[in-house]
Backbone:
């Protein structure tokens, strides 16, 4: 073989191979960062707002007691059915507890509220008055009793 003893220099790489290697390393680093960011534990939630004091609590109570009386009057006038009145009383009671404590009571089911140690008056009102009226077949519970239970929840906080 002619020329078999000749040495050939190693093949030289073009500059774009280096750029490709750097781009791959950057993509791997970005992918690792995305995985790290998505798998971090959630940040701690800020503390629940402090319960209203003195005049704020009195104003909050007065506002909700007036709304309870409004619902009771609308039921008495025939503007609301018993089921709708109990639904509105349930909403008002949960909203009051939410404003007072900061606990997300409007969206929590009854068992979750009980597990979180919600007020026994709230649990009792939901269990005896509002849930049966909303979820049970047949005649709803008398809204007058539901209004009394709502007043007990609103006035029972200290």
Residues:
């Amino acid at each position: 073989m002619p020329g078999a003893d000749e040495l050939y220099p190693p093949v030289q790489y073009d500059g774009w191979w280096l750029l490709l290697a750097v781009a791959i390393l950057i993509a791997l680093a970005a992918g690792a960062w995305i995985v790290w960011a998505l798998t971090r534990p959630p940040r701690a939630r800020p503390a629940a707002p402090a319960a209203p004091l003195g005049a704020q609590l009195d104003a909050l109570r007065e506002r909700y007691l007036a709304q309870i009386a409004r619902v009771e009057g609308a039921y008495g006038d025939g503007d609301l059915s018993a089921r709708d009145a109990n639904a509105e009383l349930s909403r008002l009671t949960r909203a009051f507890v939410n404003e007072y404590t900061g606990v997300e009571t409007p969206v929590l089911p009854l068992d979750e509220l009980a597990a979180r140690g919600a007020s026994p008056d709230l649990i009792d009102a939901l269990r005896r008055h509002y849930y049966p009226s909303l979820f049970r077949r047949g005649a709803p519970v008398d809204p007058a009793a539901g209004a009394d239970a709502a007043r007990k929840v609103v006035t029972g906080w200290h």
Notes: Residues 54-156 form one domain.
